[in-house]
Design brief:
Blueprint lengths: L16 H13 L3 H8 L2 H16 L3 H14 L12 H7 L3 H13 L6 H4 L4 H24 L13 E10 L6 E12 L3 E4 L2 H7 L12 H13 L9 E4 L1 H11 L6 E2 L7 E14 L6 E7 L5 E3 L4 E3 L5 E4 L2 E6 L4 H9 L2 E3 L4
Parallel strand pairs: 1-5, 2-9, 6-11
Antiparallel strand pairs: 1-2, 2-3, 2-4, 6-7, 7-8, 7-12, 9-10, 10-11
Length: 351
């Protein structure tokens, strides 16, 4: 059997003895696990660790405090690397005495590790809740800032790569009068020129080195990241994306305003402002007999014959007039809409 390349196999995650031991106790004893932990520790071990904590709590020298804490962790089969982050050590050093032991107990609580018996009397659960609440509020503020004022990458040179999206309506064979939106994805680079690319190929760009982001305008890179969220598992491998219903609405809501996707055969880009169109009954007396028909009423009140619009399959029903898309209020079924498009007018005497 051929051997694989050295270093290509992922190493298993290392679990320290402290976590492994307490995990076994939790699985075996359930609600009685804390009692079993206390019984498992000898009085000598607890006393020895308590003495170390006492020295650590009163130590003023940073280096000696570090060594004392290392010794304490070692007696628990733990190490400094088992506690994520680097901000907890200054907090311990800024406290003294009981306050330092309280910070040490918080270190275990925040790491979601069982507290050793000698530290349990210093555990302040109310303080833990306050810290977690403050962290949630800080995270909320950070997310809000990123949403309102996103970081923009500073380009030392002008972007050397860009995306171009071209859309066109495509009739659906088994649904007369209805369409899908066909979106073609193109990637332009100075050396290779413009070439069609699939969503899978574009998503792969986001996994490359950081300097790849510097080649694209911010909006184009934002689109690439949006694709990774849209298809996290199995993105389409073809250069054409067909959209209808909710999928089409999702693309329009995200990239329809400001208009960015090109509308094939038009100088205007595809536009969607979230406005509603609706069907309006209409009596036509232009012929020999009075006829009843339906027209499309746009948000501004203008009414158009149905033949001047393109309707897109799926729910919710969307309609395009020239390059502008609208949601359709109180839409008929696909079968009825197909008949209305085939026979827009009915003589009144037949009603």
């Amino acid at each position: 059997m051929p051997r694989g390349k050295r270093g290509t196999r992922a190493r298993p995650t290392q679990v320290n003895k402290y976590d492994a031991h307490h995990s076994v106790l939790q699985d075996a004893y359930g609600a009685l696990a804390d009692l079993r932990r206390e019984l498992a520790d000898s009085k000598e071990s607890v006393s020895e660790r308590r003495e170390l904590l006492g020295l650590f709590a009163q130590c003023e020298d940073s280096q000696r405090s570090w060594l004392l804490l290392e010794d304490y962790f070692g007696k628990l089969s733990l190490a400094r690397k088992d506690f994520a982050g680097n901000d907890w050590w200054p907090r311990l050093m800024n406290a003294r005495g009981t306050a330092r032991l309280e910070q040490t107990a918080l270190l275990f609580l925040r790491a979601k590790r069982p507290i050793p018996p000698e530290l349990s009397e210093h555990a302040n659960f109310e303080r833990l809740l306050e810290i977690e609440q403050a962290e949630k509020e800080q995270e909320h503020v950070h997310d809000l800032e990123q949403w309102l004022l996103p970081d923009e990458l500073t380009h030392l040179d002008s972007p050397r790569a860009h995306l171009r999206l071209v859309a066109r309506p495509v009739p659906i064979e088994d649904s007369p009068g209805l369409h899908e939106l066909e979106v073609h994805l193109f990637l332009h680079r100075p050396r290779s020129g413009e070439k069609p690319r699939s969503p899978a190929e574009l998503i792969e760009l986001t996994t490359r080195a950081v300097h790849e982001q510097e080649l694209f305008p911010p909006r184009d890179w934002e689109f690439l990241r949006w694709l990774t969220e849209l298809w996290p598992a199995q993105p389409p491998t073809g250069p054409v994306v067909r959209l209808r219903g909710l999928d089409l609405l999702q693309w329009l809501a995200r990239w329809g305003n400001p208009a960015w996707i090109e509308w094939e055969g038009s100088n205007d880009n595809l536009y969607f402002a979230g406005q509603l169109a609706e069907f309006a009954p209409h009596l036509d007396a232009s012929g020999d007999a009075l006829s009843f028909s339906q027209r499309l009423r746009l948000p501004g009140g203008q009414e158009l014959p149905l033949a001047e619009a393109r309707f897109f399959a799926g729910q919710p029903l969307l309609v395009a007039v020239n390059h502008a898309f609208h949601l359709v209020r109180h839409a008929p079924s696909a079968a009825l809409l197909g008949r209305l498009l085939e026979q827009p007018a009915i003589p009144v005497q037949k009603l």
